[in-house]
């Protein structure tokens, strides 16, 4: 493995690691409440695994408030899904670019075959 290939692999791992951390950062605060317990939002992974963690209002009583709370949970799920899709797309794109760079830097590929004279 050449030096350029090692550098490319290291950069790929760093980029994917940085992008993956965004899946574990808290979601932005929503106008209706937080996508998590308390006054802060949970991460996209947490909201995806535990959709009931979304908090809407103080006390839910009545069908109208329950419907609004369910709509808010669905909204939080949508925000979490969007964050996870972004993480997946950027990770895939960085791996794809890294694979192309590795293929370009491959020393065996750069050597031209010598013609055989008979």
Q: Choose one word for the global shape.
A: rod-shaped
Over all CA atoms, what is the radius of gyration?
Answer: 23 Å
E-strand count: 2
What percent of residues are in strands?
under 5%
Low-confidence stretches: none
Average the pLDDT over all residues and give the rounded result.
79
Helix-strand pattern? HEHEHH
**SS-based structural class?**
mainly alpha
Separation of termini? 34 Å
Number of helices: 4
Largest sheet: 2 strands, antiparallel
Strand order in the sheet with the most strands: 1-2
Helix content: 55-70%
Describe the structure.
- It is a single chain.
- The protein is 61% helix and 3% strand.
- The chain has four helices and two strands.
- It has helices spanning 3-21, 44-49, 63-105, 107-110; strands spanning 33-34, 55-56.
- Strands 1-2 form a two-stranded antiparallel ribbon.
- α1 packs antiparallel against α3.
- The longest helix is centred in the last third of the chain and has 43 residues, at 63-105.
- The two termini are 34 Å apart.
């Amino acid at each position: 493995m050449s030096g350029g290939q090692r550098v490319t692999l290291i950069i790929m791992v760093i980029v994917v690691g940085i992008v993956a951390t965004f899946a574990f950062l808290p979601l932005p605060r929503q106008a209706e409440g937080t996508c998590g317990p308390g006054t802060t939002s949970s991460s996209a992974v947490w909201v995806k695994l535990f959709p009931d963690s979304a908090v809407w209002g103080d006390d839910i009583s009545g069908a109208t408030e329950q419907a609004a709370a369910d709509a808010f949970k669905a909204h939080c799920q949508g925000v979490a899904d969007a964050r996870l899709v972004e993480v997946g797309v950027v990770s895939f794109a960085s791996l794809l670019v890294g694979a192309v760079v590795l293929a370009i830097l491959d020393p065996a590929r750069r050597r031209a075959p010598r013609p055989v004279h008979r």
